Amino acid sequence: MAPETLDPLVFGHRLRHFRRLTGLTLEALGQTVGRPPSYLSQLENGHREPRLSTVNQLAGALGCRPADLLAATAPNRRAELEVALAHMQDDPRYQALRLAYLRPSARLDDVVLEHLVALFERVRELSLHPSAGGLGEAGERGARAANSAMRDEMRKRDNYFEEIERAASQALASIGYGGPGAVSERHLTDLAAYFGFTIARVQDLPASTRSISDLRHRVIYVPQRNLTGGMRTARSVIAQTLGRFALGHRDPADFEAYVRQRVEANYFAGALLAPERAVVRMLADAKAREDISVEDLNESFYISYEMAAHRLTNLITRHFDIPVHFTRSDPDGLLWKAYENDGVLFPSDTDGTIEGQPLCRWWSSRQAFESEDSYSLHYQYTETVAGTYWCATHLGVEQDRGDAVTVGTLSSAAHWFRGSDTSRQSVSRCPDPSCCRRPATEAVRQWEGVAWPSARDHSHFVSGLPTDTVVFSPHPGVDLTDVYSFLDRHSGGLGTT
Fold first, then answer.
1. Nearest to 222, CA basis, from 246, 493, 209
2. What are 382-406's pLDDT values in tens digits?
3. How is domain 8-70 classified at the architecture level of CATH?
4. In the chain, where does the domain assigned CATH 1.10.260.40 lie?
5. What's the predicted TM-score (pTM) here?
6. For the segment 421-445, what is each residue's pLDDT rounded down to a tens digit?
7. Phi-psi region at 78: left, alpha or beta (left = phi > 0; alpha = psi -120 to 50)
8. Cα(441)–Cα(409) distance, integer angstroms
9. Do 311 and 297 form a contact (C-beta atoms < 8 A)?
10. Which of 158, 194, 274, 477 could be stapled to 317 by a disulfide with Cβ–Cβ 3.0 to 4.6 Å?
């Protein structure tokens, strides 16, 4: 018999393919190999498996090698789809639907076949890996839903939270900050005192935390600068922690409250370190010169590039009516943060989740890693199914391969930005799988069935939250044993009541 790995459906399509190349009918081929046409028809339809002796006879008659008939891949995309459709209908999950058998006649065009096969493949993935579609543990569903709801609210508000801008402005006024320069470390110390805290820098902060606030002794513990990746990061950690107190946060009761508090604290930190009035003045001057840039905010206010990008999205639509989008993605192209009010399409899961989804290979955030100087700003126009967009992408250098932070806008608004004169252009047809997610046909023919890659594990959480528990913790991802041990060490026993 033929090898156990032989797929009769694939063999049948390859036999039909080579028979038609030679122009032979079933009758003519049958006469050559001494087999009735009905037997050959059963072979071509995948209803019978051939003996190796028959394969050798057929190959001799068709002028090809036996290996050509026994290859593991279908001869073309149409055949590949028909094989997939047949296997799909043999699957118990499909049969449970009690649908009539669908034969791929000539009247069933390729587009319909593509949709049917892709749809069932997604159903199959969800059944094998429920958490991939948001159907796993309640914790993961809650985190996904909370992130999606927060993005919807940010879009509706053009990512501008007036009440947080006001709280940051009042806090700065309370310590006498009048601008327009960067908020200093002394200002942050005074702000902590304004909220009744002192700041202590330590070397042994637990790895699962960014800061720890001792509410009994009114101390905010933050890591030493050498442990945070630089002064800018250290400043943002302090500002985010102060945001909790400025905004009156309490321990969250669910994922929705946790996500909201996280977004609000980050927003407060940005509004504190890059005050609205000063940023708007700088953006207005830059807009008059058609030279708006994230990097100017990054340098002028001594904040991270990502925070500067967030501040631009907070204020540019509200004050200048310019729509924008923002993404943060890793070197593999997986999306972890995003915001848009300019209509750009982000990759998403079936439930609307974007975290962990792969960006198009031709998008600026991924092309930046391929540029000759990957650590200079990467400017690019990308034609997409939703319109043409201009983007500026910055690659982090804190680690060997930092994440990509991208800010962009519609091509019609690009002239306001530095780098809009770039000649770099690309075309993305995603979510069409033929754009970049399906290997080239020739590569498939050459390597499918004889290549076995081993996937590298990704360390990211789907949404920045642990999702392995149904019960919500007000401190997700934090090792409380380490936290309490840390507080015991640093309070000198004063924490005991």
1. 209
2. 999 899 999 999 998 754 557 899 9
3. Orthogonal Bundle (1.10)
4. 8-70
5. 0.67
6. 999 999 999 888 888 877 777 877 7
7. alpha
8. 34
9. yes
10. 158
